[in-house]
Amino acid sequence: MNHIVEAICTGTARPFNGVETSAIAKYPREGMVQILEDGFAPDEQADRRVHGGPEMAVHLYPLDHHAFWRERLGNIELLDQPGAFGSNLAVRGISERDVYIGDRFRLGSALLEVSQPRQPCWKIEHRFGSMTEATGMVATIIKTGRSGWYFRVLEIGETEAGDSLELVERAHEDWSVARTFAALFGKDATYEELEDLQSLHRLAPKARAKAAARLG
Fold this sequence. Notes:
By secondary structure, this protein is of the alpha+beta class. Helix content is 24%, strand content 27%. It has 6 helices and 13 strands.
């Protein structure tokens, strides 16, 4: 599996919703960009309690999903931006069904490892201009599994747009990002699935804890 990174996107925390700030708006960078343990340098997260850190260092939201959202939201200009969903990496031809927890990818001189699906929150709907139930973007993400995912950084390095995201190791072949997301955030996870997830060693600790909590 080898995919070209069309853009590398980072952002800064900006006013977002009244007194709140957010760095969900990510914009393309030019030239070489460093990848450190917490992700691209610099790349901000407004609320470090729930965003950023080593287990959510680099986010990828597949570019192919933008077409899906155009069908539902209309041809809005925001969907032309590669970092519209807060994604750091703009990549086509890859989805949650193609990528597995613990997969390792070479990107430039850095080594990344898939750590967990992204949990959608209200900021996505607010970013796209509506908090109404009619829009229901978060509910649609949960229903369709179009979540995107996070990487941790195993080896720091640098990269630039045009580099390849190259799969170098596959780990948990039973646990695609799509299946993991459905088990953690859907309604139909079995006891055996949740038991398996809570001990999946390359899954992020908070995601393993969520599986354990769902077991009761």
